[in-house]
Amino acid sequence: MSQNKVTRETIAKKISQEFGIAYATAYKKIDIILNIWSRKILESYLNIASIGSFKINYKSSRVGRNPKTKEEFEIKPRKTVSFRKSKKLNL
After folding, report:
1. CA max distance for the chain
2. Which phi and psi (to 5°) does residue 82 adopt?
3. The model's pTM
4. Rounded Cα gap, residues 54 and 43, in angstroms
5. Residue 55, pLDDT above cutoff 70
6. Which of 15, 28, 60, 77 has the greatest number of C-beta atoms within 10 Å?
7. 45-91 sits in which CATH class?
């Protein structure tokens, strides 16, 4: 199974071709946008109109179990990012 990954490079190439700007300029702009979004998510949550919202969920520690050996271990507390799509986004 092959997946088409969307990377900064592929987005920058597409933008530079679409708008006729330099690849380096497009890459820098994408990097700035992603940094702004990352900081916003870490502060509280990020809502992008017509796309959806991102927020940080905090998961507490819990006991996990290896299904083969039945050995128990602690799963440490962690942060996860959740995404909820907008009703306007048709997938």
Report:
1. 58
2. -115, 150
3. 0.68
4. 11
5. yes
6. 15
7. few secondary structures
Residue type, 22: A
The torsion of the CA quartet 5, 10, 50, 35, rounded to 10 degrees, works out to 100
Handedness of CA 47, 82, 78, 36 (dihedral sign): negative
Encode pLDDT of 30-50 as tens digits.
999 999 999 999 888 899 999
Confidence band for 81, pLDDT divided at 50, 70 and 90 = very high
**53: Cβ–Cβ under 8 A, 6 or more apart, which residues?**
45, 46, 47, 83, 84, 86
Q: What residues contact 32, with CB distance under 8 A and at least 6 apart?
A: none
Two structure tokens written together for 29: 């702009």
Q: What is the dihedral of CA 9, 36, 47, 60, to 10 degrees?
A: 100
Question: How do the domains of the chain map onto residue ranges?
Answer: 1-43, 45-91
